[in-house]
Amino acid sequence: MLDLAKLARQMPQIGQQMQKDAQASIERLKTARHLLAQATQNQDTLIKAQEQWGDRLIFSAATPIEPLTTAIDIASAPVSHSVFSADGSQIAPSHHEIAYCYLINIGRIMLHYGQNLHPLLDSIPDIYYKSEDLYGAKKWGIRTEEWMGYKRTIAETQVLAEMACTWVNPPGAHFDSPNLAMTDGSLVLWFLETLPSEAREHILNPIIDSWVELQKSNIPIIGYLSASRSIDAISFLRFMACPHDVPNCTTFCSADNNKNPCQKVDPLRDSSLWNLVLKPNQRSALFRNNSKILDLYPEDQKTYFCYLHGGSEIARVEFPKWVAMDSELLNQTLSITLTQIEKGFGYPVALAEAHNLAVVKGGDRTQFFKLLEEQMFKSGVKNIGISYKEARKRGSIA
């Protein structure tokens, strides 16, 4: 139980600290704006320095492929269009339950606008109980709970691609109506960096296959990041702030330092700076993500991004290269994204509804294990029951 009286005594100190942080953030924004203006004038020189000294850097920075201060108006989507989204949730495995297994539930959404077609709103549950699902990843040093999360990522992508590519031109649809596949979160699979190569391939290959299927059907996919904490766009300004003749980090600076000379605006986020540049319904310059993990991606699937002012916040929108290089398709993609934000009152409605369909609530969990228990009885399994620890946690005797 939370002791609110004790908690209240800590609030004044927190408030004072937040006030200090807010003032410091204002100063960082002033510095960042000045660096942005300088970097815009020297952008080509800075990009060449980034390319030349990339192997000596101790930080990762995205590369702008348009002028840094770009701000392009995005129109609302055409009346007739379709949006697809998928999101996942799970019941994690536990040795304290009646059986050691896990469940992944994928919510899927298909919304048609201006086409007189019924939407699709449902979820697809899958139970994983075989030895290869529970223990197969141990050979790579991956815990079952981690592996469940990776399986969920694969399932989300596969369900999204299958749904979108199958229904891209359903009976009665306008064949020229644009389509968009949306997913919550980044298209850069950061977690792959720490995994063995064999495990990476096992996870990445089916995801790439799904993305390629979307490309073949000319259905752009985006990763939508609300309240993004990313700094790889603003990190490009570190080249402008570098006090040395060349950005040779390994010689002049150290990765162990809390703050090197070029980190004048740290820990300012990209969204905070682009909030000064963009007006509602505008997008920022396009950036190429330079994460090392993208070396494993096919060229067309490498991740690009921009920032989009949806009115209530600055969102980061990621998309593959084949979308970024097609200006007409990119504008169409961002216009549908913007319309989704408006319909969702600040957050894309398709993403919100896919999440709601995927969530496994407490009552759902109880019903799942009840069904499992009934099936175990029918199959003649004896000695069914939860651990004493789990039993005590469910009811206090104090």
Q: Could you please describe the fold and organization of this structure?
A:
The protein is an alpha+beta fold and 398 residues long. It has a domain at 74-230 and 269-358: archaeoglobus fulgidus dsm 4304 fold, CATH 3.30.2170. 41% of the residues lie in helices and 16% in strands. Strands 1-9-10-11-7-6-3-4-5 form a 9-stranded mixed beta sheet, sandwiched between helices. Strand 10 (303-309) and strand 11 (314-320) form a beta hairpin. The radius of gyration is 24 Å and the shape is globular. The relative contact order is 0.16.
Keywords:
398 residues; alpha+beta; archaeoglobus fulgidus dsm 4304 fold; two-stranded antiparallel ribbon; 14 helices; 11 strands
Sheet of most strands: 9 strands, mixed
> What is the 3D shape?
globular
- Report how far apart the termini are: 13 Å
CATH second-level architecture of the domain at 74-230 and 269-358: 2-Layer Sandwich
Helix content: 40-55%
Uncertain regions spanning at least 5 consecutive residues: none
pLDDT averaged residue by residue: 90
Number of strands: 11
CATH topology of the domain at 74-230 and 269-358: archaeoglobus fulgidus dsm 4304 fold
CATH hierarchy class name of the domain at 74-230 and 269-358: Alpha Beta
The main sheet orders its strands as 1-9-10-11-7-6-3-4-5
What is the string of helix and strand elements?
HHHEEEEEHHEHEHHHEEEEHHHHH
Radius of gyration: 24 Å
> What structural class results from the helix and strand content?
alpha+beta
Note the total helix count. 14
Strand residues, percent: 15-25%
